[in-house]
Predict the structure.
Amino acid sequence: MNTTTLVAFLAASAVLAITPGPGVIYIVTRTLAQGRAAGAGSVAGVACGNLLNALGASLGLAALFAVSSFAFTVVKFAGAAYLIYLGVKMLRGKPRAEATALTRAPVGRVFREGVLVALLNPKTTIFFAAFLPQFMHAAMPALPQALMLGAIFVVVAAASDLGYVLLAGWLAPRLAHASAAPRWARWGQYTSGGGLIALGIAGAMAGQRAVR
């Protein structure tokens, strides 16, 4: 991977990682309920779940691309279209800033719950399968590329999640305020939605140039 592609992937990963989703909501809620130790445990669990999803997507992509080189182009365009669809759907949806109350639990249980929060979301594996090919090269082996990109994304997401843990105390009064919580959720919604659409368009254009 050249420097330009790596920087683009890191930027896209960072934008997507900071966007509040089920994993972030769980991490923030657990941190507010039990403190930073529990928050760190939930971050580790969500990261493990994301890594398993990335592994599953990587194996699937590698198997598909091994069957047909044409499949790479098809998946790339399909993935770009899916990312645009997700972005539009996110922009049109209602912002969500809810945080379900959680009972106190040992850190080990918090870790396991974090794994399940990430692992049992079927959209995560589909997202990886759509996101990773936008930064992969058809002329190179698919599995090493997908594994490396997936691991990088998981690290970026974990770093972002740890930031949420550290800032949970600062977020608490804002989330409790009736008007601040919707603004916080709306900011994340618009940032992620716009980023997904831009990423999908960029991926489609890159794929078109490759075909030509």
